[in-house]
Amino acid sequence: MLERIRLRSRAPYSGAEYGYYVGELAPSTSASSGGEDVECDVLYPGCLLDADETSRAKLLKKHITRSSTQKLVCVRETPELYAKAHEKYIASIPREATAWVRKILSLEKERERLLHCDDDFLLNVDSKWTTHPDCDGADRATWRAHSSVTDLYCLGLCVREDFKSLRDARAEHLPLLRAMLRKGRAVIEDIYGVNAEEMRVFVHYPPQFYHFHVHYQALSAKEQGCACERAHSLEDIIDNLERDGDHYARANLSLKMGERDALYAFYNDAATRA
C-alpha cells in the first residue's frame, strides 16, 4: 500500500526531521471509496530523502514501528547492558538518519526557523510547534507574546557530532550544557516573552535521533515526550555531572519503548547471549 501512495508537498520541505505531505491513493487501490481518489495527511521522515534504498527501507521500518500501536515496555539499562546492546543498536543506524541535522547545522536548511546559532549549538523552531506563525517572511516582532506561545516548542542541536546521547554526557560537556540551558532560555524569552519559569528544558533518553539535542517547551503546551521514564531535566543533568563527571557512564537508566522497536530486539539478543 505504501508504494502506491503518491506524495504531494503540503509545504516546501525545510530540512526538518519530518516533511508534511498530502498522500493520494488512486481509485484502483481504494475500492472501498466507491471509485474516488482518497487523500490523507502524511508525516514523512525527511531523512528518507537522503538515504540509499537499503538505508531507506531500514529507516522507514523504524518510523512505521514507532508510530504503530504496540505493547510498551520499560527496560532498566545498566552500563553493561548499554555496552552490550544499545551501543550496537546505535552503530547499526545509517548515517543518513541524521543527514537532516547536518543540513540544519550547516544552515543549508531551515534558515527561516533559526533563532540562535553559535559555535556550541543552534536553536530553532521545532516542527512540532504547528501553531507557530509563518516562519518564512513573517515579521518576527509579532512573534513576541503571540497567542501561539502557549504551544511553544523549540529544539537545540549541539554542533559537535561525537556527542550522541545522554549516555555520552561527561564533565567536559558542562560548559556546552550550561550554554544550551542559559542561552536557549534567554533567546526564547527575548523573542517570545516566555521566561525560564514558564518552560521545561529536557533531554530524551533514548533519543529520537542520535545527535545530542535539547527540547524547550512551554509549561502550558500539551506535554510531548515528558514521561519520567524518558525525559530528563537539563538542570538535573547539569547537577548530576557537577557532582560526578562520570555519572551517566555509571548510572542505571529506565527507558520506555515498544516491544517491536529495533532497540528492544538488541536488548533481548543481549539477554539471550548472557
Characterize the structure shown:
The chain is built from 7 helices and 11 strands. The chain has 274 residues and is of the alpha+beta class. It has one domain (72-273): HIT-like (HIT family, subunit A, 2-Layer Sandwich), CATH 3.30.428.10. The strands form 3 sheets. It has a 6-stranded antiparallel beta sheet with strand order 5-6-7-9-8-10. It has a 3-stranded antiparallel beta sheet with strand order 1-2-3, with no helix packed on it. Helix 2 (79-92) crosses helix 7 (262-273) and helix 4 packs antiparallel against helix 5 (234-243). It is globular and about 60 Å long. The model has no long low-confidence stretch (mean pLDDT 87). One of its GO terms (biological process) is deadenylation-dependent decapping of nuclear-transcribed mRNA. GO terms for molecular function: hydrolase activity; RNA 7-methylguanosine cap binding. Pfam families: DcpS_C.
Question: Gist?
Answer:
The protein has a single domain (72-273), classed as HIT-like (HIT family, subunit A, 2-Layer Sandwich). It starts with 5 loop residues before the first strand and ends with a helix.
| CATH architecture classification name | 2-Layer Sandwich
Silhouette: globular
Structural class: alpha+beta
Distance between the termini: 40 Å
Query: Largest sheet, order of strands side by side?
Result: 5-6-7-9-8-10
Q: Please estimate the helix content.
A: 25-40%
Number of continuous helical runs: 7
Radius of gyration: 20 Å
- Portion of residues in beta strands equals 15-25%
Topology, number of strands:
11
Domain count: 1
Main pleated sheet: 6 strands, antiparallel
The residue ranges in which pLDDT falls below 50 over 5 or more consecutive positions are none
Q: What is the CATH C-level name?
A: Alpha Beta
Q: What is the N-to-C order of secondary-structure elements (H for helix, E for strand)?
A: EEEHEHHEEEHEEEHHEH
The third-level CATH topology is HIT family, subunit A
